[in-house]
Design brief:
Blueprint (H helix, E strand, L loop, with lengths): L7 H8 L2 H6 L5 H14 L4 H25 L12 H34 L3 H7 L3 H11 L1 H26 L3 H7 L5 H4 L1 H14 L2 H10 L9 H36 L11 H12 L2 H34 L5 H23 L4 H27 L2 H4 L6 H26 L1
């Protein structure tokens, strides 16, 4: 139990951790693919999409952690209030989202291993299955060990991109201009496709399930004032962590815009091409090495949260308690298979499209997680005094509507 008499700073540290576990999902290899493609082709224009997506993520993660703290249940478990048929649909959609996310992690890690150690992509993809053993070892040690590893890897990623940003010397005025939303994004179908991919890569559906679970890992008491304090500190933790994720995602897109778009290289969608071009463009081989190290850290970091989310979703929706190592192997096998098939059929050139597609799939799963989350957190019988205020409820439903509308529009554009 967290001591009520300790200082504000020590309480903040006691609640810190879950937000960073969630934030790593916002800087996974899928984000790299969408950010690199968007930056090289459209310059700084899509920075506004990252900004808006991050704002949406902050609000939705606040709702997720509040649900877990107030009810003592995660989003998947509390869905038992829905009819059985609807609960099964939501479960399947959540599993699709987790598999799509895991697919991005497999591809990203395989590419990183290839860039660093010249390991063939197929072998690299198969090697990623081994990470289950590291995860199980850390899980047995306790959640704090997982959180420490995650935060350390975030540090590696931020250090790497800090160096890349310094070497690429981006234009500050263009960055500021890119943060302003542009109507052109809605008019250009190709730009919209990447924008929705960025949205899916940023507001990840399975992270909403996971955060509602992780928010319960701190012992804070059952009184309303205890829950209110827990919500406050958890929201600060989540918001700060997502701000770090925002900086990383912006850095990737800015790097692509400054290094590629500025030099007339508008079709750099492959992560491998980005790696090959960075060293000659920035004038040092260190940039390529740091790029690959950050990619490997990103892939392994996201693996941790993807696995935990998988366990929460399966146990919550259908009450199936599968051994962690078996659950991990099943999920990872489902992700490895399409990656290996694409590598075998198309080589490395098919991976970028598969990565972006995985993020668009994530975006399409968002309504199936966001709408129940907004519904439950606005339910006064369930949440009591912690139910969403009228203003927050309005904002949350607008977010759900915008996400759903954008996905419907994308489907319409794809089949038109």
């Amino acid at each position: 139990m967290i001591n009520k008499n300790i200082s504000w700073w020590r309480k903040f540290l006691a609640f810190a951790g879950p937000g960073y576990m969630i934030a790593v999902g916002y800087m996974d290899p899928g984000n790299w693919a969408t950010d690199i493609a968007g930056g090289s082709k459209f310059g700084y224009t899509l920075l506004s999409v990252i900004l808006i997506s991050n704002f949406l993520a902050i609000i939705l993660q606040h709702l997720a952690l509040k649900l877990g703290i107030v009810t003592g249940k995660d989003l998947a478990s509390i869905s038992y209030k829905f009819p059985n048929w609807l609960r099964k649909i939501l479960w399947v959609m959540a599993e699709v989202a987790i598999t799509a996310c895991d697919l991005a992690e497999v591809i990203g890690s395989a590419i990183a291993l290839n860039l660093l150690f010249k390991l063939p992509l197929i072998i690299g993809a198969l090697v990623t299955v081994i990470d289950v053993f590291l995860l199980l070892f850390l899980q047995e040690k306790g959640m704090r060990y997982l959180e420490a590893l995650v935060i350390s890897l975030i540090g590696v990623i931020m250090l790497s991109f800090g160096l890349e940003m310094f070497l690429s010397r981006p234009e500050i005025g263009m960055i500021v201009g890119g943060l302003v939303p542009s109507v052109e994004i809605l008019k250009n179908s190709e730009m919209l496709y990447i924008a929705i991919g960025i949205l899916g890569a940023t507001v990840m559906p399975h992270n909403l399930y996971l955060h509602s679970y992780l928010a319960q890992t701190r012992k804070f008491g059952n009184k309303n004032e205890d829950k209110k304090e827990a919500i406050m500190f958890s929201t600060i933790d989540s918001t700060l962590a997502l701000c770090f994720a925002f900086v990383v995602n912006c850095s990737i897109l800015i790097l692509a815009a400054a290094a590629f778009h500025k030099n007339g290289l508008f079709e750099v969608a492959e992560i491998q091409d980005a790696h090959r071009l960075l060293s000659p463009l920035l004038g040092t081989s260190l940039s390529g090495i740091m790029f690959a190290i950050a990619l490997l850290a990103s892939g392994h970091n996201s693996t941790i949260t993807g696995t935990l989310a998988g366990q929460v979703v399966m146990e919550g929706f259908v009450n199936i308690k599968m051994k962690p190592w078996l659950r991990r192997l099943v999920t990872r096998s489902l992700a490895v298979t399409p990656a290996v098939v694409v590598i075998w059929m198309y080589g490395e050139h098919g991976l970028a499209k598969l990565l972006v597609l995985s993020q668009v799939i994530l975006s399409m799963q968002l309504p199936f997680a966001v709408i129940p989350l907004v519904y439950f957190t606005g339910n006064k019988k369930l949440m009591g005094k912690f139910a969403n205020s009228k203003m927050l409820a309005t904002i949350a439903w607008i977010i759900a509507g915008v996400i759903t509308s954008l996905n419907i529009y994308l489907i319409y554009e794809s089949f038109k």
